């Protein structure tokens, strides 16, 4: 939505002097990852992002990518065990179980719910969990369910919004402390020792 000058916008800017000063000195924030000579403003950078996120990506594309890329290959956005198995069959080294934070389709299953079946379908392959991890206790739960690692997104963005780079570091340290505390409280020496025996399911 393009910016529209108004009395309300002016008052909002004046009530946030640090942001206003940054805006006057640096201009509007940009998507630096996508800034090129042909995409120097936010709208054109957003168009580049849309082109790169091609919804028509298919299994044939994954096979071609595997043929052309000799490094490690993980496929993100997996929410079914069958898709995880197909990725590995086509040469992926593992998968990232992710519903993209629930932003794309609100009714996708929770990643922790599909994680155990996914791990069982691709033994020996890397399984990383993304989406929904907010605390150290969450980290312990998903590692106990079989994840090799956990990705943090929104939790660090909260810190970024509050205190910039320092806030991100604070959130990461907080989650590390919570993870250590949770491990101590359940009597487990490290995340590498976790397994499903530490998980208690509620009766259905």
Automatic annotation (TrEMBL):
GO terms for cellular component: plasma membrane. Residues 1-204 form the FMN hydroxy acid dehydrogenase domain. Pfam families: FMN_dh. Keywords: Flavoprotein, FMN, Oxidoreductase. Gene3D superfamilies: Aldolase class I. Its cofactor is FMN. GO terms for molecular function: (S)-mandelate dehydrogenase activity; L-lactate dehydrogenase (NAD+) activity. It comes from the Bacteria. Its EC number is 1.1.99.31. GO terms for biological process: aerobic respiration. The keyword Iron-sulfur does not apply. InterPro entries: Aldolase_TIM, FMN-dep_DH, FMN_HAD, FMN_hydac_DH_AS. This is (S)-mandelate dehydrogenase. It comes from Paraburkholderia phenoliruptrix. The gene is mdlB_1.
